[in-house]
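G., the chain you wanted modeled:
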Amino acid sequence: MRLSAIVLALALTTAGAPAVAAETRPLRVMSLDQCGDQYALALAPGAALALSPRADDPDSWMREAAAGRRRVRPTLEAAVGFRPDVVVRYWGGDARLLARLEARGVRVVTLADATDFDGVRGNIRAAALALEAPGRGDALIARMDARLRQAAPATGAPKRSALYLTAGGFTAGPGTLVDAVLGAAGLANLVRAPGFAPVSVERIVLWRPARFVLSFFDQSRGDWRGPGRHPVVRRAAKGRVVARLPAASLTCPAWFAADAASMLKAAG
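Predicted structure as tokens:
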């Protein structure tokens, strides 16, 4: 009887071992693009992460946190090999990959193209829920809101107008997160047409905005011959640049867009 009891105890212990291992296994999170990388790194730093190849590029806000992390291409083969529990994406991954992931029961979080800070809050909550990190999500929203309070103009302060311009010669009007960033810092957007649009060198010369907010000029290898870098544009903007926002602050509809607003405020 004593031997039978020992055998039964060993059998129960062995049977329970895989279940315990499964419960303690780190969450496996795969990101399909650079924006997904930011959310995965911020909300699930303790997870087993498979990040996109662009996770540590100069225009990645969380590039330092990405150091030493696994990188994979956003392919079906990579997903099959990694076996993620959750996939985070903004635009990455083709229809075939997404269909196969969902068929396998993988949770796929698609970040919305947020055009204001309420939309960013929605992205954070959706990603935090899928990544089982609601507390981290709340902390991230609180951090963003604190930055927005820092950026907010004094009550009654007049709004100054400014033109947002990238090195590639693009600007942004209403219905974009850039417009929300300008507004959060108390700046009135000179562009009234919605969405993103190119701005010609000739128009800038004739228009001669009183203030410029420049962005994506820190990417020395990107758009190095773009209209925004034209000598005539440089002369038009001389002495009129409110701030130069780093590309990393505006590459993704995420919480660090509030840092861009705070930079504008700090630049005066």
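DSSP finds ten helices and eleven strands in the chain.

Shout if anything looks off.
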